[in-house]
Amino acid sequence: MSTFFLRAFLMIAPGIFLAMYLLEEDAAASSLYWWAASKPLMCAIFGIYEAILFKIWVLPYLVDRVVKMLYGDQGSLDETMEHILQDIREGRHDAALKALETYTAQNPRRLAGWTERANLLRDSFRRPQDAVKILQQAVEHISRKEDKAFLLYRMARIYELSMDNAPEAQKTYRLIAEQYPNTTYGREAAMHITE
């Protein structure tokens, strides 16, 4: 909580000091050229200072709040998932796959584990059929409509792009469009349907 007050002070205090500086009506000082010329410079410095603080503190906070509002806890990653992603980035795919299997068994309602597991199977191990099976398992465990539509959409894309199975992809697109028409992925799937 003290960090919040420190940040608030660092953002508000310079504005108060700048306002006092700009509103100062000292007759003797106002006749000096440097005093009058420094006011726009002070405004520019203050603007840059506030823009930096906004980018460092306010914007990340707002983005975090929006992600939590849209995805709940699904938008944030826990420490275990961070380690798994680090393994993937460093090329330890076998260890990451085993860790993801354990992670999805322990956290079946967390979307990130399922999607990363499917991505790893499809991209690194070149096993798109197994990736589809993982996504089918995930649909059974995930409860949000938007997330289910997302998982089904991922399945359809794997059918279409990785397995060259257009009929199965069309069938999955139709399923998404019929069952989840008011979701983002339901609308996207409807655009992929060819009659």
What does this structure look like?
By secondary structure, the protein is mostly helical. It has ten helices and no strands. It has helices at residues 2-23, 27-30, 33-71, 79-89, 93-106, 111-124, 128-141, 145-162, 166-179, 184-192. Helix 6 (111-124) packs antiparallel against helix 7. It starts with a helix and ends with a helix.
Tally of contiguous helical segments: 10
Helix-residue proportion = over 70%
What structural class should be given to the helix and strand makeup?
A: mainly alpha
Q: Kindly, what is the distance between the CA atoms of the first and last residues, rounded to a whole number of angstroms?
A: 58 Å
Query: The biggest beta sheet, please?
Result: none
